[in-house]
Amino acid sequence: MEEKQVEVQDVKQDTTPTASEEKQPVNQVPYARFSEMVDEKNTLKVELDSLKKNAKEETESRKLKQMEEKGEYEKIMAEMTTKYEDAKKKADAFDEYQVTKRDSLLSKLPEEDRAIYEGLPLEKLEAHVEKVNTNPSPASVDNSKPTSTGGYASFEEWASVDPDGYKKANNPQTSGDIKIGYGN
Question: How many CA atoms lie within 13 Å of 16's alpha carbon, on the beta-carbon side?
């Protein structure tokens, strides 16, 4: 008889991931790529803002040149004064805001510290006041040894000022059968 040779292929394949492959779920983006895209987006946003600002300035200057050529100096002066007045109002409002904010922050500090922090910029002053107010100093605790007179100078003073407390403290049932001071 003839012998048939049957070749058996190894069905098992190497399924271990290589070092370059990272286990990433299908819908997730690697962090490096994400941060790269965020940085790129932010730079493009800054560039767009600067281009818009430049375009606006250029159109304004072109408009002014056209008005100068036509001899409309009074109209130019009127526009400039309105822009100046608007800017002046905003600047005054901002200055007033800073003064009131500084005063309110300084009022939260102790009287003796106000002179020290008066010269700080507003941002640093806000940070300092927030830090001081969120971390209040711990309450002082009397660590002295308690006295047997209930906090009074003598047993007589205790009995005259707080007779009920004195009787309760010297009651044999509540004080463990130990009588102190002058009492029944």
Answer: 2
Contact status, residue 136 vs residue 108, Cβ threshold 8 Å? no
Cite the DSSP H helix spans in 15-72.
31-70
Token pair listed for 115: 């002179």
CA of residue 45 relative to chain centroid, distance? 26
Distance CA 43, CA 45 (A): 5
Which amino acid is located at 127 in the chain? A
154: DSSP letter = S
Q: What is the DSSP string of 171-182?
A: -TTTTTS---SS
CA–CA gap between residue 86 and residue 66 (Å, rounded)? 24
CA distance 90 to 5: 95
Residue 36 pLDDT level (bands cut at 50, 70, 90): very high
In 91-177, the DSSP E strands lie at none
Q: Which of 16-20, 53-57, 86-90 has the lowest mean pLDDT?
A: 16-20
Place of tokens 């408009």: 63
Under a CB-based contact definition with an 8 Å cutoff, are residues 126 and 142 in contact? no
Instruction: Provide the b/e sequence for 148-162 (b: ≥16 CB within 10 Å).
Output: ebbebeebeebbeee
pLDDT band at 87 (very low <50, low <70, confident <90, very high): very high
Q: Provide the strand spans (E) within the chain.
A: none
Judged by DSSP in three states, 97 sits in helix
